[in-house]
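Quick question: what would this complex look like in 3D?
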Amino acid sequence: MRAGGGGIVVRFTLNGREVEVTTRPNATLLDLLRNELKILSVRRGCETGECGMCTVLVDGLPVRSCLMLAPQVDGRSVTTVEGVGDPERLHPVQEAFVEAGAVQCGFCTPAMVLTAKALLDRDPNPDERTVKEAILGVLCRCTGYAKIVRAVRLAAERVAGGVRE
Amino acid sequence: MSSSSVLEEIRRAEEFLVVGKGVRRIDALDKVTGRARFTGDFVLKDALHVRLVKSPIPHGRIIEIDAERALSLGPVRFFTAADIPGENQVGYALPDQPLLPADKVRYVGEPVALVAAPDEDLAEKAAELVEVRYEELPAVFDPLEAMERSDVLVHEDRGTNIAEMTRVRKGNVERGFEESDVVVENTYRTGHQEHAPLETEGAVAIPDTQGGVTVIASIQYPHLCQRITARVLGLPHSMVRVVQPYVGGGFGGKDDMGPVVSAMAALVAFKTGKPAVLVYSRRDSFTSTCKRDPSVVRYKTGATRDGRLKAIEVQIILDSGAYANRGPYVLWRATMHAGGPYEVPNAKVDGFLVYTNKVFEGSFRGFGNPQVQFAAESQLDELAERLGMDPLEIRLKNLLRPGSRTITDQLLESSVGIYEAVKLLGEKTGFRAKWREYRRERAGRVRRGIGIACGYHGISTSRGVPDWSNATVILGRDGSVTVETGICEIGQGSWTAHAQIAAEVLGVPVERVKVVGGTSDAPDTGATHASRGSSIGGIGVYVAARRLRERLADAAARLLECDPSDVEIREGRAFRRDNPDDYVEWEELVQAAYGMGYEMSATGYFFLPKGKFDMERGLGYAYPAFSYIANVAEVEVDLETGKVRVVRVWPALAAGRILNPVLVEGQIEGAIAQGMGYALTEELKFEDGRILNPNFTDYLIPTSLDVPEVEEPIYVEDLYEYGPFGAKGVGEMALIPTPAAIMNAVKNATGVRITEIPATPEKVYFALRRAGVVAGE
């Protein structure tokens, strides 16, 4: 990270690729990703850390990118849903979301998928309560969460071959 | 093709290949991979960012708007009512709402002016620096007070704060109450509800080379956005093109707000010649968009000793806020549904829509119906209590059945499945046994209770107002199928249902069908509201696809050298029914049909047959069909905190053919969560007309830990004659009875009737204390 010419240079890993970008020191990670890097799956829902729409993974953990300053990711690894899978190679969580009918309007879906992935990466066998606690920070106004929870457990089943009751 | 023959055919059909199956959403891949694009993603080069300048006072005259300091910041543009080239009017039911007010403001948060700049921060700063001088006027916030006052008028030219009055007069209520052995009377109150779509309202407008404008916006009805935007700009409709990208939730709010944000962004684009982006902040979304109308409902019910309903007398007061918007239609719907899905021989209903100096109200899932069903269904339990009956018994005695008449005296000949649905629901849940057990127990700090409530909801527009469907289906030379519709995809899955209908009728796999919807380039299909997206919207797809199917059968008959009636088309092949090995592939068939001169596109206009409605007495044909719902809710009430936890909900739905059970479950589960929020936690707090909690920390929508388990729904497929494959509407249904089901369960648990929602912990706690269930200080 170095300052220069009114901006600050930030180097980090974005979806497995090294990026170097000059940004304002007070830009949020959300601004950096959406406005400068055009990662549009990271969504603006409230900009006050309440809704979870802008969730990304920083070093594998869910972070609200509206609450993090861009320079704070210097030297770290950021994952957005683009880095999780694509239509030809869906991640098991994405596959499960499609199959379980966990998608409605789709606005919260990237945040939900990332949060679920982060959960399964550290706990491949979560019970229902654990799943609900993990996605607590991401609001959804369409689904009532039922099929999202089911999808996460379905993905766990597929990856780990079973879930606790 | 006559509609009765269509029905016959559907009834004869024993199995479908695509319809009725949990077909995967056609937009699922876009959404799970993050490729789906929403309005705010379309920021073009050179775009101007638009911000609102909002009124800080609830009521006052605009004396002067000074933008000098704002403009001195740099390349800032500024727009007021004076800049509007066309008509400054966005009112829906009444012409009472300016896009930007010229003379006075009527609520805190009302947009007074727009500021645009090439940079978001600059636009933000400039909006803050615009100085508006007001002469403050006395304001009125309580609808009961506003009704009586003529010295403080929200709209002076109307001479009263009452925006609309409605009525139903059926039979003779005086006699009905005389014949009643028991009469129950209560007053119920409901609060505001914010839609809280996770994508806020927004529009992007792009000037075109011919003097018109293209609008990409978060909407529920492209043709309405087109009409309103064209009116504001003073352009012919044809010069405004409206397209939806993906929409991040609507719930009714974007039906009303879509035209407003479209017109605002279009105004900036039209005046500057540059693309304009307007995306509401979460705060804007709370302060400056319509909400669900708060209500006061006074309800008197009479019944005989054996539990038969004899009469209802209902007064409904809806707080419309600063503008009427959809209020008159919301009020009519509330008025005509006031009896609940029951036979009531005598009914007197009076409705009042009242202006106040608060944010305006509008469309929200259920559209006036949740407010009255909360009252009607609470009343029924109170009545049962007085009669020594259980809640299931009194409902089964009075539910509508085929041949019943509604409170507007409309005869329901068919498609009335609520009786069967409630009967099945009672059995599945073991309702009676649980209800008796919980009532008997009532011990300990956490009390358990079970409650039931029903609802019904007229499909299509109210009171015989014309309604129609339309769609275009186009077969490409490669055999691909395109469905063009005005119906919007707002998360509910209507485009998937449309693809299923087209695939079923044409005989091709769903994957071949692409749906292009939510655009003014498609035929006007009416709005995506009133649970009509897949049901009414689907009719047009059905009719258009039928036309093509007949042409294809004709063409196939020529290829297969048989009679068209012997042709079967399914799973992408046309074959002779008597010899499936004699077939043509779909692509080949479509190409051959093109070569033979068949038109390979068709529209499917369908005008819904309706009857007459007498506005004076509020009697007659209210809706072409009703969908029905019943929910059983099981709750736990913590006596010490007053917190109500909804443990489990069992839904039962009678909405005709279930086109896609996965989509329908999604609608039910989402509606129950939203209804639970409405009933328990979602409370907008006002102080002198100002919203005190315009954020998700203080306005509580349900999280993953708050929602109940929702059991697999019971479906009673009471086919509707004109619906596609007999389908009726679903989207709004499960929200409607949810508040009453929860409050009936609270009563079962504690013996205390809660008459006001949201039933926040403090409200419940103090109600329990007043009733002596918990000790006071």
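Answer marked as accepted. The mean pLDDT of chain A is 94.
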